[in-house]
Amino acid sequence: MTVQRLFVMALLLTLPRSAVGQWTFLSGDIWGPEDMAVIDGAVVVTCDGASCEAPAYISTDEGDTWTPFSSASVREARAVEALPDGFFLEFSNQEAVYGTPDAATWTSTTPASGNVTSLFYDKVGDVLYATTQSLNLRISRDRGATWEDGGVLSKDDELSWVHARGNRIFAGYNQSSAVSGAKTFLSLDGGDTWTELGFSDTSGGFVAPNGDLYLLQNVGGALTNTTTLFYSKDDGQTWTERYRAPRVGLQGRSTPLRARTQVYVEGTDILLVANDRVYVSHDGGDTWEDKSEGIIPDKTKSSYATRFLIDGDTAYLLLRSDLGDVRDGYGVYKRPVAELGLTGSTRVANESPALPKVFALHAAYPNPFNPQTTLSFTLDRPGPVRLAVYDVLGREVAVVTEGLHGVGTHRYAWDAGALASGRYLVRLETDVGARVRRVALAK
Q1: Among 147, 185, 421, 431, which one is most buried in terms of CB atoms within 10 A?
Q2: Is 345 exposed, middle or buried (0-12, 13-18, 19+ CB in 10 A)?
Q3: pTM as predicted
């Protein structure tokens, strides 16, 4: 660590925080920070790499002090996510634990995969997603208790990032466009069907509260590469460039391979992080300002943000380095949300009262089945629902549920033991339309 950086860090830590008006660095003693989750001031940071002294670090005072996560068998943890009732933490050895909201008690749970690259919890759909190095997306509809495949999306490399809101799921991975099949994927029906959007070398995405899509892509050549923000208002059919992050000398503002870049949208407010720089727009992307005050500058072109979160009135940022032996300025930062000028400062970043006006009937699982299967559907708003099953002649053979249902995902077990083997149609009727799925009973 240089004398100059020591002086900068000492200055940041000694000045009164209310007077600084900038990001405050919190985790100088954590090697290899990888991911972060926050619940009411309790912060969990994972560590992934040979230099890890513990698989995770925990703070119960908004990052002021840290305690290593104690584990005799695990040294690395790749991903962590905050759920409504606690933390989901996945290690690198095909193990996972569930923690209480205060991060004090941890119990074993079902891992999403042995090679998770990121986790994301969608509060609108009440669904937990995991991207993996196994080319597929994993989905849990019961907050990590069980997992199912969400489709093999990536053809040549691992998935790096996922964002979702209700039935809209956005996923991709950061890879050179020279690799065949490096794409970004979009589902508008809760993961039942997917569309390749054609973007390569993407590092992050965001589904806005109104359903608009935001995508970050590395654009340019070796010396001109820079993180560029695009958005789509028509479900990915057309895209408009909104911002190219400024370059610094010849090092550019691109994100390293396999990195994730953070973007956050609330109304006309947009925040994005390119490498170690934070940019904010309050007019939908027409004008931008640099809000990186307090972040220790990156001299290596190896940093990128793996998380931006809002917890109450505090914004948290996690910067990671591709250089395992570097810790200067990499780790957890925090800053009052008011200093960033963001609206909705008392809501966490994924949550919004405005939901896309869509609903979905999900694929039955298992299918084919004998004699029981689970039928599930997601609503964007409360209303009347009728879920029924018909044979191929159109005769109704079962009414699974009928009546008013609330926002979110609903699941029902259906027992077809009294029916003959064959194909059946599952029909979901709502006040705004209907959906149909085919199932096969194989006795």
Answers
A1: 185
A2: middle
A3: 0.73
